[in-house]
Amino acid sequence: MAYDRVRFLVVQDFLEFKKKHYLPDTPPSQLKKDQDRRFYFHLLQGMVRHQRLLETEIQRRVNKPFHKLQGTVIGILTLGLYQLFFMDKIPVRASIYETVELATPFRLLPQKALINAVMRNLQRDLEKKYSYQVHPLPIRTSHQDWMVERWRQAYSNDDVQSICEANNTFEGITIRPVAPWNTQQLYQMLKEEKVLATPHPIVSQALIVENTSDLLISSVFIKGACYVQDASSQIFLELTQNLWKGFVLDVCAAPGGKAIQIQTAPHVTNLVVNDVSRKRLLQVCQNMQRLQRNPPVFVVSDGRFLPFAAKFDAILLDVPCSSSGTIRKNPHIKWIASESELLSQTTLQKQLLENAARFVKPEGVLVYATCSLEIEENEQQVQKFLEKNPDFIILPFATNTAILDSYRSFVTEKGCYKVIPSSSMMGFFAAVFLHKR
Ligand SMILES: C[S@@+](CC[C@H](N)C(=O)[O-])C[C@H]1O[C@@H](n2cnc3c(N)ncnc32)[C@H](O)[C@@H]1O
Q1: Residues 123-146: tens digit of each pLDDT
Q2: Which domains occur in the chain, in start order?
Q3: Ligand 1 pocket by C-beta < 6 Å: which residues?
């Protein structure tokens, strides 16, 4: 076979992505070898992550209007340029050859010369030390202008630059050990199975694993010695650990990362795990089984109409949101069509908050969390909730000073917890409301 099968599938799925904005969770079934499956994801995610930059670079290297180029040619060139810019380990000649050869299975033989010319043009520029850093921030980091502009309204210029750059770095998934194992033991066990893990730079118990598929098939994972959780969620759980006591409800619980941790808090007597989706709640069940946990009470209900007669000492509301703090792992979020689509969950979030508040006992807490960077989903929701519910006040995260010293920078002036994405963490926001009476 003259062309590379993995690259062919990558281009095919990239073109699909551009039409439907959908990124597959699993590689195509034709790819049997682990190495091929990894390469497929690496290329596809990289192309989605750097799409705008790559298309800008293609555009400046062809001498006809971009819209006159065939979509498939753009797809092939996006892959080719991605390799030249971002994959140092592939020899340049191999990248050029493989890219040009892709024209064959796509039946684009007459386009070979154009593909070759664009690739060679970039090769020459790179030899002359050309850098894509010449472009303005939204182009060089591949974001839509309106998205960067939104962040500029809410964050300092330095923060916006950090967010955009962090969104393009993803070293691997973050995991935490599950008792009785500790981080050191987890590290050793993974090493014995040749799963490479590195200590997290900020959260001492966390490890970063570059190769997700190796982790997921390791006996360490299967026997429940660890679970996947981003560092920003791990810190959130550390900072809130004293709040989980008595009768606790997790309203939007699936896939269960936080519920699993809350279940082990020493003063929790009952945990009710709720989600609107039965299918997603099954994932919580499976996760708890893997970790050999006693099942909590599972409830399938819409959090806007909770079916309880009793009230709770603590409620977690980890709401559906834009997930714009997770672009590092989910680069497709960059290409959401519009601001209104990005913010499409804000009404639901407000309703979930209003309804959950009715089920908090006096002196109990309601903990609101998102993985969003958008103030409409974070600070503004908090503000509106406090205005409408004078019997609730903010319980500042800073009250737990023993833990806070190393995490102080994540606590806002108003006492909320806020992480902006960095090279080792996803974005996260949380506020704790205390029911006064
Ligand atoms: C951000 S995820 C929760 C993540 C989870 N807390 C964890 O730590 O793994 C949001 C969840 O809210 C659920 N959800 C969406 N709309 C809901 C509703 N109206 N009522 C209850 N749950 C809802 C979704 O099914 C999804 O599982």
Answers
A1: 999 999 999 999 999 999 999 999
A2: 5-135 (1.10.940.10), 173-228 (3.30.70.1170), 231-435 (3.40.50.150)
A3: 251-258, 275-277, 280, 302-304, 318, 320
